[in-house]
Amino acid sequence: MNILILGSGGREHALAWAVKQNPKTDRLIVAPGNAGIAQLAECADIDILSGATVVTFCEENAIDFVIIGPEAPLAAGVADATRAAGILTFGPSAAAARLEASKSFTKDICDACAAPTAAWARFTEAAPARAYIAQKGAPIVVKADGLAAGKGVIVAMTEAEALAAIDDMFGGEFGAAGAEVVIEEFMAGEEASFFILTDGTNALPIGTAQDHKRVGDGDTGPNTGGMGAYSPAPVLTDAIAAQAMAEIVLPTIREMARRGTPYQGVLYAGLMIENGRARLVEYNARFGDPECQVLMMRLGAQALDLLLACAEGRLDQAQVHWAEDHALTVVIAARGYPGAYTKGSVIKGLDALPETSSQMVFHAGTTAKNGAITATGGRVLNVTARGATLAEAQAKAYAMVDAIDWPEGFCRRDIGWRAL
Ligand code: AMP
Ligand code: GLY
């Protein structure tokens, strides 16, 4: 079949890498793609936020299956457009993607189905929000309701910080995303990510992961989109996964269907685990990035069969075939990230690294220029390896990191420490 993947990051490189290995794949196109993706698929520079453009492209290229990587096209209704045009699609409708696009919507769903999560309140004006913070005290968490590229959450350790966040949000720092604000209880514990495929009715867990959000070793410094990840997440034991399915994920799926907006795609549940129980931090309507890279490394070609079963509504017949293995990915970012960084420096040493079923450098922000690979993003490479143990995967990944010659890049040296 002919397959189109939307997106341009390491997540989409990993999806393309897994899909490409499946014999069902004939033609594989990624839009817009990047320099690493171009080594295994065709890239097409189209506007992936326009449903009409994507549908026309699918028709012109006889696309049988569309896989939507990032949240922006989901929130823009691209899955609605392709489904309406009769194209098999992996990814939720805009209405269902509100589980990521609106924090207060998710909180309403949790309340409606009694899913455990932090206590919360919603505000559209500063004065009552300030009064609520004064009443509850710190630590407390302030969130812009809408999509804010991962920057709309302030975990305030003092009341002053929380009040400053209120001023920023109602002062327009996050634009329309901050017109509504959710304030919630601070949850202590350890975070882990749980990935579940659902076709709207059936649900199939496809793996767990943990990422490292802070830029510096030892989880210090500013927040990022994720500096590395590993799978599985040992903190998310079978018992906790079962509790999360029974109390959070399945009730959410049923509530979305009951409202007439069934969720179809991957549900990424961010969980906070404390005293052997999980509570929901947030949902995302897509695979995590870089969590997807470690999931794909472990799933390989079967990922396509699972995504197809999800899109075709037959997840009740699908199964995940697990190897008892571990995968770990190290993000190499441009110096300066998550602040200002320069673009255009040349990355060397990639050609000499073997690409196998147990080691891959996924590209997140690269462009090919005059035969060289140049850095064009903040997070640039995802150096990913698989091993019989997490320690082995980690050693392999860092050996690959050390073989890459890119002085303008940096990475954390401790990815996986929590689990090792
Ligand atoms: P979110 O965008 O909702 O995932 O929030 C970003 C990060 O903020 C999460 O990954 C958590 O580390 C943290 N966070 C969000 N909500 C809470 C909460 N209620 N308690 C503690 N930490 C939180
Ligand atoms: N790595 C976190 C995310 O994809 O949201």
TrEMBL record:
Documented EC number(s): 6.3.4.13
Cofactor(s) this protein cannot do without: Mn(2+); Mg(2+)
Pfam family, one: GARS_A
InterPro entries reported in the protein's UniProt record: ATP-grasp, ATP_grasp_subdomain_1, PreATP-grasp_dom_sf, PRibGlycinamid_synth_ATP-grasp, PRibGlycinamide_synth, PRibGlycinamide_synth_C-dom, PRibGlycinamide_synth_C_sf, PRibGlycinamide_synth_CS
Pathway: Purine metabolism; IMP biosynthesis via de novo pathway; N(1)-(5-phospho-D-ribosyl)glycinamide from 5-phospho-alpha-D-ribose 1-diphosphate: step 2/2
UniProt domain ATP-grasp: residue ranges: 107-312
Keywords: ATP-binding, Ligase, Nucleotide-binding, Purine biosynthesis
Catalysed reactions, as listed in the record: 5-phospho-beta-D-ribosylamine + glycine + ATP = N(1)-(5-phospho-beta-D-ribosyl)glycinamide + ADP + phosphate + H(+)
GO molecular function: phosphoribosylamine-glycine ligase activity
EC class of the enzyme, as a word: ligase
Protein family membership: Belongs to the GARS family.
PANTHER family, sorted: PHOSPHORIBOSYLAMINE--GLYCINE LIGASE, PHOSPHORIBOSYLAMINE--GLYCINE LIGASE, CHLOROPLASTIC
NCBIfam families: purD (TIGR00877)
Protein name: Phosphoribosylamine--glycine ligase
Species this chain originates from: Paragemmobacter amnigenus
